[in-house]
Amino acid sequence: MPNYTLNINGKKITVNADEDTPLLWVLRDELSLKGTKFGCGIAQCGACTVHINDSAVRSCSLPVSSISGESITTIEGLSETGTHPVQLAWKEIDVPQCGYCQAGQIMTASAFLKEKPKPTKDEIREAMHGNICRCASYNRIEKAVKLAAKNS
Amino acid sequence: MSQNKSLSLSRRNFLKTSLLAGGGMLIGFNFLSACKPEAILPIDISNLNFNDFNAFIKISDEGYITIFSPNPEIGQGVKTSMPMIIAEELDVAWEKVSVAQGFYDPKNYQRQVAGGSQSIRFGWDALRQTGATTKQMLVNAAAIQWGVEPNTCFASQGNITNANGDTLGYGEVVKVAANLEVPENINLKDPKDFKIIGHDIINVDIQKIITGDPLFGIDYSSEGMVYASVLRPPAFGNKLTSFDDQITKSINGVTEVIKFGDKIAVLGTNTWAVMKGKKALVAHWENETKLESTDDHNFELFKILNGNKFETNREDGNVETAFKDADKIIERTYESPFLPHNCMEPMNFYANVTDKKVHLVGPIQTPAWTSGKIAKILNRKPEEIHLEMTRMGGGFGRRLYGDFAEEAAQISNIAKKPIQVIFSREDDMAAGTYRPAIKYRIKAAIKEGKLTAYHLKEAAINGNMYGLIANFFPAGCVPNYRVSTANYKSNITTGAWRAPFTNFLAFAEQSFFSEIATELDKDHPQLIIDLLQNVKGTADERIQYSPERMEETINLVIKKSNWGKTPEGVYQGFSAYYSHNTHVAEVADVELKNGMPVVKKVTVAVDCGIVVNPLGAKNQVEGGVIDGIGHAMYGDLSFKKGTPQSVNFDKYRLIRMEETPEVKTYFVENNLSPTGLGEPGLPPAGGAVANAIYKATGERLLKQPFINQLEISKSKLLG
Ligand code: FES
Ligand code: FES
To answer: B117 pLDDT exceeds 60?
Structure first.
């Protein structure tokens, strides 16, 4: 199995994995970064969302061999202590129910706000449409994105 | 009428106290049953025996409160609301309270209560009494220290004060309090004095969730653990005959292939390897029992509805005569498909079976039942099974069934190493314990402008509605009333799904009442309110709902939704339903966009007694309503020759952000004991939406998912 040197949350890490292994399983199984979640494996639910450079990417469908030196950010690296404006907004609005989808939601939202700092309601709903929340916390997600935009 | 029965336990029985070796006082208590007389409270926090006690409270020498609860969190917020109740009666500032997951103790940790809609309802009295009794012990201890009578002392916000104005913190008296008799006949607070209950409190796990801490079953791992992906029969009715694992074994990371029963487990060092390995297996199957298709189910259920082999769940008056004498008879048939649960966290479980013990870790709602079954399967003593519960990425009823835990135990037992079974989404959807397809046929008799008879027939798969449902509305309101049930036995595994039976029945009945209202030229909510008058003051103890509470709930939703006063282009539908001891009424606002109805807003009124944590409660209700709309609109799992036809989110449609309406929730204010909230918001939602769509398009929706019929109508409309 080949070695890959990845730049994850600001650290260079070398992993040994088959080339078709999705980044998701490298993060979870090899590096014990369990914050990135598995929901569908086919880029349909957003639970596995991470940032590659500044864009939100579905790590379940991204082979480790396709990454070369880009900086990867996971929920664990979004902020030191959970103080990214999106995280703070998530807390203030008390978004989660079971909580399982929320790391993916937060990663999608934070990448989106970087690109569009002052979104409209419709833009928020469109941007977050790809992330499933089975507990249906959608309206609070919308509110929290709005709040994060206001506070950042 | 169903009211919460007070737990008739003496406080001596359910609460014990001890002094902790490391400082502070420990209170152990049980809220569902008495403590065993021989149960001994530990003097060391690392030895909490959750077998003997449901939960523990530690009061430190500094007056900090820690509540240890092994209760799982499915997403219903009980991990936050239960400690709130204790803290309220104990009278401490919420900022001084923290909640810890019970420590894992292999010697003692075995069974505990799974959360659910009912947790708060059953726990309410006992949790309050635990808090209040503990507070009284602290007061008694302070009184002893001061040499005054306890009734001259007063406790508030973690301090005790006496008539002379002296003050002692709770932490300063724990040493004395821990050794006092447990007092009885404690007064509980007057709800108007509540300082924590009724206030918005943020989920206690929020920090861990937003930072991605490993909290869930799927995040668990241990030294030497390997992953397991299981190939199960592809169709219900299949049996394994032979298989070839040559390619599988050549995959990097795959370490072993194990056959157990009709299943094959692929073990390996990472999840990707074992998932690939499973796909590479070449297996041969034969048909052991009939491979059923959705067409077969439709045929069988209609055969039941058209036949006369029913059991009667409840019968009032004479339905036959009333139908004979009727001026008009309305009859409708409502149909629903199978539904998977689709918890966001796919099923998974960890097992490490050794000669000494069976260690199990994962998300499960029924730890006691599952441990018992595993003990039987592995032929081990019950006390050798140690099951540790984790936070759950959704339950919805799926995690009541321990099939995935049993698989983990069987595989580890053969492999002789720690393993974690992990379902792919396809596994999760294809090996379900589904909400079965159901058909309801409802028939009503109308005479002289009144509803004189109501007959509900249920044709279900593998089981029928539980007995209480026949005593829900409109039981007692219609003089001639009958509920008949029958079922067809299928080899497809089925089980409970959020708000079992009522998740579809409420839609059928409230759509039907909308039709009756149209027929009688009456307003739908007014028709229900009129009918409710007939059951007020009834001596019939079987009746589950309260007509007074239902009426108040309906009136609240009428007011808050501006019922009947919406602007042009907004169409409203109404629905009200009682389930899980909670009364709910909903109004959906629908608009038309390119010929398709869009649900814009849902107004919800809820009577769930005292609302412990409004912030969490609204989240629950809102989630239930949107879940109800999503599944009524899109949820559809069909079968062809025993095989489910959609097994991932590309084909199986779940509601998403852009289809989600605004939800406004209002609570009926009263001082009655709290009731369930995780489920009752869901059942009325489908009916409210269907009734609003009828107003918008003139079309009655009788079949779920609605989307199929809506798309046909749209294409007709567009020609
Ligand atoms: S797990 Fe990657 S999108 Fe669902
Ligand atoms: S909070 Fe449960 S899936 Fe989103």
So the answer is: no
User: What is the spatial distance between Cα B217 and Cα B215, in angstroms, rounded to a whole number?
Assistant: 7
Q: Do A142 and B221 touch (CB under 8 A)?
A: no
Residue B39 to residue B347: CA distance in whole angstroms: 35
Tokens linked to B282 = 């070449």
User: Nearest Cβ partner of B654 from A21, A125, A132?
Assistant: A132
- CB count in 10 Å sphere of residue B486: 18
Whether A87 and A145 have beta carbons less than 8 Å apart is answered as: no
Nearest CA to B636 among B398, B435, B474? B435
Residue showing tokens 């369930």: B676
Residue of A nearest to B427 (CA): A40
Give, using CA atoms, the residue closest to atom 4 of ligand 2: A133
Check B425 against A42: CB less than 8 A apart: yes
Query: Which among B585, B611, B559 is positioned nearest to B681, based on CA atoms?
Result: B585
Q: Is B623 in the pocket of ligand 2 (CB under 6 A)?
A: no
- Is the pLDDT score of B630 beyond 70? yes
Distance between CA B222 and CA A47 in Å, rounded? 23
Cα B639 from chain centre: 26
Cα–Cα distance for residue pair B626/B610, rounded to 1 Å: 23
* Residue of B76, B210, B392, B601 best to disrupt the A interface, most CBs of A under 10 A: B210
- Which tens digits make up the pLDDT trace of B515-538? 999 999 999 999 999 999 999 999
Rg (CA), chain B: 28
Q: Do B210 and A91 touch (CB under 8 A)?
A: yes
Token pair listed for A138: 């959608």
Tell me the best of A137, A139, A141, A142 to mutate to test the pocket of ligand 2, counting ligand atoms within 8 Å of each CB and taking the most. Answer: A137
How far is it, in rounded angstroms, from Cα A7 to Cα B120? Answer: 46
Q: How far apart are CA B1 and CA B16, in angstroms?
A: 34
Is B276 within 8 Å of B251 (Cβ atoms)? Answer: yes
Q: What is the ipTM of this complex?
A: 0.98
Q: Tens of pLDDT along A32-55?
A: 999 999 999 999 999 999 999 999
CA B308 to each of CA B313, B443, B456, B486, B627: distance values in angstroms, whole numbers, following the listed order: 14, 15, 13, 9, 35
**A90–B394 CB contact, under 8 Å:** no
Parallel, antiparallel, or unpaired: how do β-strands A49-52 and A71-73 relate? antiparallel
Instruction: Please indicate whether, in this complex, the C-beta atoms of A139 and B344 are within 8 angstroms of each other.
Output: no
Tell which phi-psi region holds residue B428, choosing left (phi > 0), alpha (psi between -120 and 50) or beta: alpha
Cα(B110)–Cα(B387) distance, rounded to whole angstroms? 6
Rounded to a whole number of angstroms, the distance from the CA of B274 to the nearest CA of chain A is 11
CA A134–ligand 2 middle distance (angstroms): 5
Q: Nearest C-alpha of chain A: how many angstroms from B30?
A: 25
Q: Yes or no: say if B456 and B333 are a contact pair by the CB < 8 Å rule.
A: no
The partner residue sitting opposite B657, judged by closest CB among A41, A94, A125, is A125
CB of A47 sitting under 6 A from ligand 1: yes
- C-beta A103 within 6 A of ligand 2: no
Per the CB < 8 A criterion, the answer to whether B416 and B258 are in contact is no
